[in-house]
Amino acid sequence: MRKKQLSPTHKRDMDIERAFSDLHPPLDAGAAFIEASRCLYCYDAPCINACPTAIDIPTFIHQIRTDNLDGSARTILDANIMGGTCARACPTEILCEGACVLNKGDEKPIRIGALQRRSVDHLMDKVAKNGTHPFQRAPQSGRRLAVIGAGPAGLSFAHRAAMLGHDVTVYEARPKPGGLNEYGLAAYKMVDDFAQKEIDFLLGIGGISIKYGKKLGEDFSLSDLKKQYDGVFIGIGLGGSGTLGIPGEDLDGVEPALSFIEHLRQAKQKSHVKCGRHVVVIGGGNTAIDAAIQSKKLGAETVTLVYRRGDDSMSATAWERDLARLNDVQIRTWARPSSIGGDQKADHIMFERTKIIDGRLQGTGETYRLTADLILKAIGQKMLPLGLGDLQIKNGRIVVDDQYQTSMPGIYAGGDCIQSGDDLTVQAVQDGKLAALAIDQALTRNDAQPPVAAHSGKGGA
Amino acid sequence: MADLSCRIAGIDSINPFWLASAPPTDKKYNVVRAFQKGWGGVVWKTLGVDPPVVNVTSRYGLHKDFKGATIGINNIELISDRPLDVNLREIEECRREWPDRVIIGSMMAEMDEQAWKELAIRIANSGVHGIELNLGCPHGMCERGMGSAIGQVPEMVEKTTRWVREVVDLPVFTKLTPNITDILVPAEAALAGGAHAVSLINTVNSIVSVDLDAMAPDPMIDGKGTHGGYCGSAVKPIALNMVAEIARNAATRDLEISAIGGINTWRDAAEFIALGASGVQVCTAAMLYGFRIVEDMIAGLSAFMDEKGYKTLDDFRGRAVANTVDWNELNMNFDLKARIDEESCIECGRCHIACEDTSHQAIRIEAKDDGGRRFVVIDDDCVGCNLCMHVCPVDQCIEMEPVANGLPHLTWPDHPKNPAHKAVAESV
Ligand SMILES: Cc1cc2nc3c(=O)[nH]c(=O)nc-3n(C[C@H](O)[C@H](O)[C@H](O)COP(=O)(O)OP(=O)(O)OC[C@H]3O[C@@H](n4cnc5c(N)ncnc54)[C@H](O)[C@@H]3O)c2cc1C
Ligand SMILES: Cc1cc2nc3c(=O)[nH]c(=O)nc-3n(C[C@H](O)[C@H](O)[C@H](O)COP(=O)(O)O)c2cc1C
Ligand code: SF4
Ligand code: SF4
Ligand code: SF4
């Protein structure tokens, strides 16, 4: 159990709360107009092609310029119903902004994410006040679809399917929806309970019900759902964290970075979250960077991120690495952990230096020691194949065809639990959207067949 | 350094930059600040017969472009709303305190000979260098039979000009309204009335925008709006053409021109001078940015003249007039093709979509090995219209290259495809 205690460096609680304020404060109307005015309104723009959800970026920016903010938001949300989270969390430097043609000139790229946030926030605020969801549902199809997992993939699927006229029931293992939007994304990207606000907005379309505390493989099975619904979508993400497999891993003070972030995201007051004095984060991805920065913000004296290969191999983008360094995170490369020491509680960790020898990453035998009372493991998430039964799985992910259908007809999957693109929120949203369109097409093709579950009463589980 | 002094209608000015008759020249306070910044002269805010007019609030509407920059303003202000003797006293003081600067008195009155003559005499007695007849205000004053109501009737233009000429021994500038179909008609009327110079243009009649919440034009006065006078950058092209028309026309060629309309920079001013203007007047640019803009106008114009080797304004005045011709005198055999510099192209696609949707489908997109896009001009389809060059956001990325086709100069009247020409040829 986590106890309430003051952060180790006795920073005032207030300072900590402030440290977790919005990473990029929103643009006001004037700043948004000026930024929008820089956009060239490219034809067949490269930024669109670089967006996994293919948002019509030149059009939504043009709509900001013409003071049609509602229309701008609709352009975004039509392609990406979680445009609000994506505006906050996308690594735009490797997506749309990285592809902006202005990079080729001497100018900075358009701040697409910031503009997107401006439009979506505007419409979401408006909808929160007047309650009118911007999209209408097609006439009721009489079809019922089940979704497993209320993460971005599952919710995007649910929204698009509801829009197409189907009724959707979502089964979620946890007590809250959102998946990593709620439990994983860095706190300073998702201030003011944005994940839940966005989900309220998304559910405003109607036709979607969520059952919480329902876990596939424990509370229901795939075949239950298959019997009761016309189609099933699996969006369970990657629930398991990788292990190091080294001595001392079970000591107190060693935990998955994701659970550390999760506690932080769920804490009513960030300053009440327990952190170490000397934090070591192992890993080179997004999660490692986020865990490291957030430890520092909680008041850790030293935060060291150790990655087994070189800077360029890290899956965290250059921008994210810079952000970490700016936040006083030490990044050490070319070393892997060999053991963790301490008496019940971890107090240090040993690393072995690494090198590429004969094309393979190998230890050199040379070691060093870092003092550490909190060790966060961020060496990748794994899919937990709980309840997936005979579904074909490859490289730890569910196999799907180009229509997002798994090896079992009528069962679709998307998001992190399949191998579609990068493990990013925006990709999960795209998967969910496309899978919904695919199921809809398949159902329309099969219109001759009567809906399976139309009269079967309550959903199972 | 180039000599910027100029002489217009016999009046010497230290430079060609005057402030037009408008709020910037409304009173001594403004005029003194303008002279301090370096303006060569002012045309005092138009004076009328007492009692002074009364203005409304608000008075301005703005026209903005795509990027939010002001391209024009619209006003519904009337002439000076201060008593005549207050204005005349201040004019006298300014004349005394700033002997090297020009002050022109602007005036208007109803179509009454005595009113025009008495007012002209009073203004002349204040010591002004010349008198400008405001025959252009297209809002408010015209409803009282003044301003453009006079400027739109050639006989009245001639008459008012003559009335003033008859009673004062000063240079007379007749200020023309652009709210007519052919500027040469009022210009010739002014000349017939004895004007030493014409000033043009006054504002263009306009409604600048409609407030869609209130469902009324801007600017709004208690829920209602009216048409007003449009000015600023957007009217420069209209003014340039009207100035060129007068400068090219045999009958008005020798009429001196004080050019007005959308002048923001030294370059704008130089363009008007190249089309024959002796000096220029500025209003909107000063209203938007303050009197300090004249400093760069002076510095920029002299740098340009030094660069080109022009020692005085007369060295380039009117130089573009001979090259401003009728369409019928253009060379039909001249041919240009667009050339895209792949190196500097940033692949925005603007040239393609402009040509594809609205011109001649002459820019093709090809896939590049690096995943990018190459924009290629199809010479056979390119008509050399320039559209792509203008929409391209990268400076000098698209250039228009003349085709060395070896063909002789050929005008439309002589062109084999001209039906009229054929008829002539056959009838011979
Ligand atoms: C720490 C961290 C930071 C990240 N930061 C970013 C970022 O800044 N930007 C970005 O674009 N991406 C980021 N990502 C990646 C992004 O969060 C994921 O790609 C995205 O959330 C995947 O969505 P998903 O719907 O597939 O899965 P998830 O978000 O994981 O959602 C899966 C849902 O399924 C539920 N579930 C799981 N198993 C079951 C079961 N058996 N039965 C019922 N329900 C189940 C879960 O409770 C969860 O609600 C980050 C990831 C992590 C871990
Ligand atoms: C607010 C305002 C008031 C004006 N008042 C007068 C006036 O009293 N007399 C006059 O001759 N012209 C008046 N004008 C017209 C200007 O002198 C000038 O001809 C016109 O604005 C075009 O020049 P610009 O584009 O530099 O502004 C006025 C213009 C404005 C904007
Ligand atoms: S590439 Fe850049 S400039 Fe072009 S449309 Fe996209 S954001 Fe605008
Ligand atoms: S000059 Fe005109 S016709 Fe030629 S490529 Fe450009 S836009 Fe097309
Ligand atoms: S408009 Fe200019 S920069 Fe854009 S694609 Fe065409 S040539 Fe390239």
Top keywords for this entry?
heterodimer; A: 461 residues; FAD/NAD(P)-binding domain; 3 domains; five-stranded parallel beta sheet; 34% helix; B: 428 residues; alpha/beta; TIM Barrel; 2 domains; eight-stranded parallel barrel; binds flavin-adenine dinucleotide; binds flavin mononucleotide; binds iron/sulfur cluster
Explain what you see:
The complex is a heterodimer of chains A (461) and B (428). With 461 residues, chain A is an alpha/beta fold. Chain A has 3 domains: 24-130, Fumarate Reductase Iron-sulfur Protein, Chain B, domain 2 (Orthogonal Bundle), CATH 1.10.1060; 144-239 and 390-447, 3-Layer(bba) Sandwich (FAD/NAD(P)-binding domain); 242-378, 3-Layer(bba) Sandwich (FAD/NAD(P)-binding domain), CATH 3.50.50.60. Helix content of chain A is 34%, strand content 18%. Chain A is built from 16 helices and 17 strands. Chain A is globular, with a radius of gyration of 23 Å. Chain B has 428 residues and is of the alpha/beta class. Chain B folds into 2 domains: 6-315, TIM Barrel (Alpha-Beta Barrel); 329-422, 2-Layer Sandwich (Alpha-Beta Plaits), CATH 3.30.70.20. Helices cover 31% and strands 20% of the residues of chain B. Chain B is built from 13 helices and 20 strands. An 8-stranded parallel β-barrel of chain B has the order 3-4-7-8-9-10-15-16, surrounded by 8 helices. Chain B has a 4-stranded antiparallel sheet with strand order 5-6-14-11, with no helix packed on it. Chain B is globular, with a radius of gyration of 25 Å. Classes of the chains: A alpha/beta (461), B alpha/beta (428). The A-B interface holds A 33-34, 37, 40-46, 65, 101-102, 104-105 and B 66-68, 346-350, 352-353, 365, 372-373, 393-394. Flavin-adenine dinucleotide (FAD) binds at residues 89-90, 148-154, 171-174, 179-180, 184-185, 215-217, 235-237, 239, 258, 261, 286-287, 290, 381, 386-387, 415-417, 423-426, 428 of chain A. Chain B: GO terms for molecular function: dihydropyrimidine dehydrogenase (NAD+) activity; iron-sulfur cluster binding; metal ion binding.
